[in-house]
UniProtKB/TrEMBL annotation, chain A:
Transketolase-like pyrimidine-binding domain residues: 5-192
Listed SMART domains: Transket_pyr
Organism: Thermoactinomyces mirandus
Keywords: Oxidoreductase
Taxonomic lineage from the root: Bacteria, Bacillati, Bacillota, Bacilli, Bacillales
Identification of the protein by name: Alpha-ketoacid dehydrogenase subunit beta
An example Gene Ontology molecular-function term: oxidoreductase activity
Domain of life: Bacteria
Pfam families the record matches: Transket_pyr, Transketolase_C
Keyword Oxidoreductase attributed: yes
From TrEMBL, chain B:
Gene3D superfamilies in UniProt: 3.40.50.970
Protein name per UniProt: Thiamine pyrophosphate-dependent dehydrogenase E1 component subunit alpha
Keyword Oxidoreductase set for record: yes
Domain Dehydrogenase E1 component per the UniProt entry, residue ranges: 23-318
Names of required cofactors: thiamine diphosphate
Species of origin: Thermoactinomyces mirandus
Domain of life: Bacteria
Family annotation (InterPro entries): DH_E1, PDH_E1_Alpha_Subunit, THDP-binding
BP GO annotations: pyruvate decarboxylation to acetyl-CoA
Keywords: Oxidoreductase, Thiamine pyrophosphate
Amino acid sequence: MTREISFSGAINEAIRLAMRQDENVILLGEDVAGGAEIDHLANDEAWGGVMGVTKGLVQEFGRDRVLDTPISEAGFIGAAVGAASTGLRPIAELMFNDFLGTCLDQILNQGAKLRYMFGGKAQVPLTIRTMHGAGHRAAAQHSQSLYAIFTHIPGIKVVVPSTPADAKGLLLTSIEDNDPVIFFEDKTLYTISGEVPEDYYKIPFGKADVKRQGRDLTIVAIGKQVHTALEAAEQLAEMGIQTEVVDPRTLSPLDEETILASVAKTNRLIVIDEANPRCSMATDIAAMVADQGFYSLDVPIKRITAPHTPVPFAANLEDLYLPSPKKVIQAVSELLGDESISAI
Amino acid sequence: MMKSVDQKDLLFSREKAVWMYQKMVEIRKFEDRVHELFMKGKLPGFVHLYAGEEAIAVGVCAYLSEKDSIVSTHRGHGHCIAKECDLKGMMAEIYGKAAGLCKGKGGSMHIADLAKGMLGANGIVGGGFPLAVGAALTAKLKQTGNVSVCFFGDGANNQGTFHEGMNLAAIWKLPVIFVAENNNYAEATPFSYASSCTDIAQRAAAYNIPGAIVDGKDVVAVYKAAKDAVDRARKGEGPTLIECKTYRNYGHFEGDQQKYKTDEESRYHRDEKDSITLFRNYLLKNGLLTEEKLSAIDSSVENAISEAVRFAEESPLPSEEELLADVYVSY
């Protein structure tokens, strides 16, 4: 059975199912329950995270398993690493991925490294959920998309879902996984809705999803940029250009095979990534295709990314910062050398 | 003939005393040998020796069970030995050999043996506080009755993780014992310069937990403080900070010229505050062990260390497939 629920509802449901299935699964983070030890606050009035994504979980699982933490990221992200390596299966919420700076050592040098450094004897079944993404007018310290930094680090898996159904299935896979996983949630996607199965299901890592089939052009897009790609593809279809949209869903591991197969079919590649361009996923995917799929390409690879700037606050500037269907169509026009192609 | 001793006046049994003495001697002789091997150019990389601080690791671990966890530091060989890690496996690890406890992939700064509750040495100063807190969170939520111990040096007490870890452990009343090994130098920088407090233990007050200062050269004093803290933790009363005043016999790392030390302090700690000599005298005075027995332990440890070196030197290097193994459980 499926029914239409929101992206944030799908995440909430995945956590709930995982916590019902395995008592070692705990959730911890700043206000993930909300208002701990305030006597007059009923559990159903507790926040459930700043965006309400984890609302209601404390009522079912109690405050021992839905654990409010102080604003102390190095402390509780590191404690989650320690708890994971000693028998729990924590889901830690790093409220915004921008707060990485406060706790990077615990992820980079502890969580990601323990297994390898200890010759395979340690296991760190930890999921870190974190919000990312621009477009919320949240400015430079609450809008970044830092998944490339984590993809760079061996020992961590990186997940960036674009739809409610993917979010639920990938989060359940993340929680069951025995390696540290960082799970990115675009804050502007929380309110979108889609068909989501009611049951407990998992989506494997390293399997891209072709969100739209096409023969003329491949667009690889990450997170909410999948929607930018689909919107552009609609418009391009009206101009007779059939676009294939590939959603990698996990960046580490990355499904190179599906990307290369699509490029082999269409001979053209655009990568959309709303992160900054240098050392980004867009650059990484472009390099991979240049290396392994060069002879499939009819035209150079195009990357559509943010500029090399922080995220601005002013609405007009932030819109300019982000990729858009218009920018995609402009890129297609350049790639095909056809000035008649332009956004509607 | 051994004097009879009224055992109830002592903190620990004769059997425990033998174990403690043996572990202290193992640490000393292990580290002295590693020093020699390093000087001969036989060991790769960075090595930080624990000699001089034996009483702390041994005094604390003597009161732990195998299921209790410890989190260690870059100066971690002593903690490994006190938590009963295998000497051969440790030495092979320091050599970077396949038979090492971490298959030669960790080295001196990352020796771990999770089956023994040794959750790892750590190359990041202050990196271990949150990990120890997490192990204690597991113990509390799973109601195992276990405790975790976080060993750290004076250099770590100015890291944010020290404060974050102590605060979390305090608000959640976690069974953690924070054990400061204050050897007075963070690398070459004196404690008095780097820390705003005169004693690390003072900082416990900020987190509303007990803070104790003990002579870190006196294994009996360390044992007593650890016992109080572990008992408190097991009863669910929360964490304790124990500051052990100590001194390291060698430099920060092997190759350190140690010019920042004074001759006087080095002489004092060698001639008057040597932890093994102090414990030896305690054991003899209380009739717990004879000179003969102590000497027998000394020579058996000497042999065990030589055996460990032989084992490490004979072990093969890790196979080349090991480069890519163990990054993920499954990928």
